[in-house]
Structure formats: structure tokens, C-alpha cells
Amino acid sequence: MDFSNLKKLCELGGIAGRESAVRHEIARQLRPLAQDLRSDALGNLLAYLPGSTSQKIILCAHMDEVGLMIHYIAPGGFLYFVPVGGIDPRTLLAQRVTVHTAQGPLTGVIGTKPAHITQPKERTQAVPMEELFIDVGLPAEAVAQRVAVGDFVTLQRPFEPLGEGRLCAKALDDRVGCFCLLEVLRRVRKPKVGVHIVFSVQEEVGLRGAGVAAFGLEADVALAVDATGAADIPSCRPQEYLTRLGGGVAVSALDAATITPQWLLEELWALCRTRQIRSQLRIAPRGGNDAGALHRSKAGVPACALSVPVRNIHSNVEVADEQDIAATVDLLQAVLETGFQIKE
Asked: Across residues 58-87, what is the average pLDDT?
């Protein structure tokens, strides 16, 4: 599988509510693959691919990433910020960032009080976000001319291979889901089911875009394609892993926003067995994704999340396994080619 398009998507900037660069690129790629391409009032990108039966499915992946927004410019030209989405402040200190201004992007670094003038206790604790600042290396006057309160900030990290068959980047959550949707649409030109395609906005701040998008659609089933946390690391116990890198596509049984109907879960597992798709069950007591908004649309839509496991999620060093991404695309292909036996 060629991951050059995933690299392109991950390296774009687009925090929740500021997804336009991502939307424009996906729209460019989506135009020859589907019909009725449009954006709605919130900025969701929607399209449709007709099927050979009357059955319809929603496939949804969110375009936004976690990030920051400038809320105060100090007299010395240092930039203070607030989080947009659930970004972990422990991961921010000493990181490079991109400040997206009206005049173009600026590279900055996140700093705080130097260790030489801190107390020993301070050096053993995470620095509170309100004590962090961005330095863009410009005089205060130049900063005032180029940067505005409300400018958004993304973590800066190139997309690169890691070890054997692993990929490291910022914004794998959820550009990897967007990548999977585009890949399956290239593979399946004549699906059995009609496909409502949704690239949603503002998932990271409360699943806002998906609920709006789904309200205008009629579907029998909805699948959210997202990244999910892989906690298979030394600091976590096996019962806390949620998912494992290399374990395949994560089929969600339960999370804080959705409980997958039993029949839908069984059909997805059956497809994995029949097509020998590497898969794992996801049971997450916390967290959610766009499936939580999709399944509550109108009179209700049976929904499930299909997720790519990602280590270090919501950071600029997210790590995914190429085989897990391929398995997710394979399962989506199986769904579009076979459809579902809808049950109550």
C-alpha cells in the first residue's frame, strides 16, 4: 500500500473548526471518486456513491486534529495559547509548532522558565499549560504585525517511517481515517450499498460535525473510521491496552459514546473471518468518536467505529502500524462489496 497520500494529509494543518486546508485537499481527491460533492454550513465535506441495491451506509472520518489557539500576545512578543481538543500538556514543552497566520505560517518553539532558575520540586512536575509560551523568534513589533489573537497552531513533525512497518506523524488521528476512506473509494467503484461519504469537522471538541452531517442523510448503517489509543506500552497493564499495534483493525463493541448492536458486531466479525482480515475487539470505558453522534441521528442509525490503533495519540509523535491501516481498508472494502443483513 502506498502511504504517500497519508503523509500529505497528516502534514496539512487543521485543528477543530479550522479544517479548510484539509477539506480542500480531500475535495480535490474525492471529486473523481463520488457524486454530489458539497460542504455544509459547519464545514463537513459530503459526497455520495450509488450502490446496486437500495441499502445505504454512512462512512465517516473526521478531518480535524487537536491543537492550540493563540489567546494572548505578551508585550515581548511571546504567544500564550489555549488547547483545542484533548491535547496532553505533558507533551508540549520544547516542541516545534506552526503558527498559522493570515500572512502565512510561522515556525515557533514552546518554552517555559529555564531549569536553572526553578526549584527542584518544579523540575519533577509537568509544567501547567498556562505557563507555556510560543517563541517565534521575531521582535515584538514584527509579531504584532504578523500574529493575531485567534490564530491557530499545530504541532510540527514530519511524517516518517519508524522501525519496520510503522509510521510516525502528527495528526494520524484522524487523517488515517480520511486516508482509509479515500483508499476504499478508489478500490470499490461499484459498491453493493449506496455510500454516504462524510469527512467531518470538530470531532475533537465534541463530535459536532458528524451529528449535523448525518441529520440530512438517510442510511441503514453508519461506520466511523477513526484512530484509537493503543496502550500496549510498558507503563500500562495488559488489561489497560484497549488495542495493540499490529493487532489489526479495531472493531468497537463499546466506548463512552456508543454501544454497537450485537448483530452489527457479529456481521463485522464474520467479514473479518471470511476474508481473513486481521482484527481485534475494542472495548473502551472512556473516549468516543463520531459513531456516538451518527447513531443518534433522527430516529437512530445502527453504528460502529472501525479504528486504527495509534500509540501516543493526541501528540506529535503518533505511531501506527501499516498492517493495521491495510486491514481497516480491507474491512471497509468487504462491507461495500457485501452489504449487511439488517436486523432489529
From this structure: 95
- pLDDT confidence tier of residue 285, bands split at 50, 70 and 90: confident
Model pLDDT, residue 122: 60
> Angle between the 262-274 and 322-338 helix axes, to the nearest 10 degrees?
110
**pTM (global) more than 0.85:** yes
DSSP 65: B
**Residue ranges of the chain that CATH labels 2.40.30.40:** 67-155
Give the residue carrying C-alpha cell 501516543: 312
Residue predicted with more confidence, 119 or 199: 199
In b/e form, how buried is each residue of 157-181, taking b as 16+ CB within 10 angstroms? bebeeeeeebbbbbbbbbbbbbbbb
Best CATH choice for the domain 4-65+170-338 from the list 3.40.630.10, 1.20.1290.10, 3.30.420.150, 3.30.420.100: 3.40.630.10
- In the structure grid, which three cell numbers stand for residue 325, read together? 491501516
Distance, CA of 208 to CA of 212 (rounded, Å):
7
pLDDT at residue 269 is higher than 80: yes
In CATH, which of 2.40.30.40, 3.60.15.10, 3.30.230.10, 3.30.470.20 is domain 67-155?
2.40.30.40
Res. 284: pLDDT tops 90:
no
Residue position matching grid coordinates 507503563: 235
In the chain, residues under CATH classification 3.40.630.10 are: 4-65+170-338
Q: Are 331 and 307 in contact (CB under 8 A)?
A: no
| Active site residues per annotation | 203
- Distance of CA 73 to CAs 20, 52, 76, 149, 343, Å? 25, 56, 8, 7, 56
Closest CA to 228 of 304, 173, 285: 173
The larger pLDDT score, comparing residue 239 to residue 214, is at: 214
pLDDT category at 116 given cuts 50, 70, 90 is low
- What pLDDT is attached to residue 242? 81
CA distance linking residue 262 with residue 214, whole number of Å: 22
